[in-house]
């Protein structure tokens, strides 16, 4: 049973046609994915933050947890 913790990004601007959710990084636990997404959202327009390829606004980062289904033998 393997769970997966990731940080994803999407454009959060109203009216933007870009709807893809991009996997940014895989982390070791939920706490690290949550703190990394908070850090990237705090960057805003500063250097290092990715921007939307359609509207040019900063992307919104959020943590994702994929919990694996248990396997019973």
Describe what you observe in this structure.
Helices cover 19% and strands 27% of the residues. It is an alpha+beta fold. It has a domain at 4-25 and 42-66. The protein has a 3-stranded antiparallel β-sheet, covered by helices on one side. The longest helix is centred in the middle third of the chain and has 14 residues, at 30-43. It is elongated. The two termini are 12 Å apart.
Question: What is the first-to-last residue Cα distance?
Answer: 12 Å
How many helices? The count is 1
Global shape: elongated
**Which regions have little confidence, pLDDT < 50, spanning 5+ residues?**
none
- Helix percent band: 10-25%
Q: What characterizes the major β-sheet?
A: 3 strands, antiparallel
Q: Main sheet: which strands, in order across?
A: 2-1-3
- Structural class by sheet pairing and helices: alpha+beta
Tally of extended strands? 3
Q: List the helices and strands in order.
A: EEHE
- Mean of all residue-level pLDDT scores: 86
Q: What does the radius of gyration come to? A: 14 Å
Q: Beta-strand percentage?
A: 25-35%
């Amino acid at each position: 049973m393997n769970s997966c913790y990731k940080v994803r990004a999407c454009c959060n601007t109203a009216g933007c046609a870009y709807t893809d959710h991009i996997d940014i990084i895989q982390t070791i636990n939920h706490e690290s994915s949550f703190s990394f997404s908070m850090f990237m959202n705090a960057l805003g327009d500063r250097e290092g933050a990715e921007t939307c390829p359609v509207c040019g606004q900063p992307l919104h980062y959020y943590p994702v947890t994929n919990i694996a289904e248990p396997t019973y033998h």
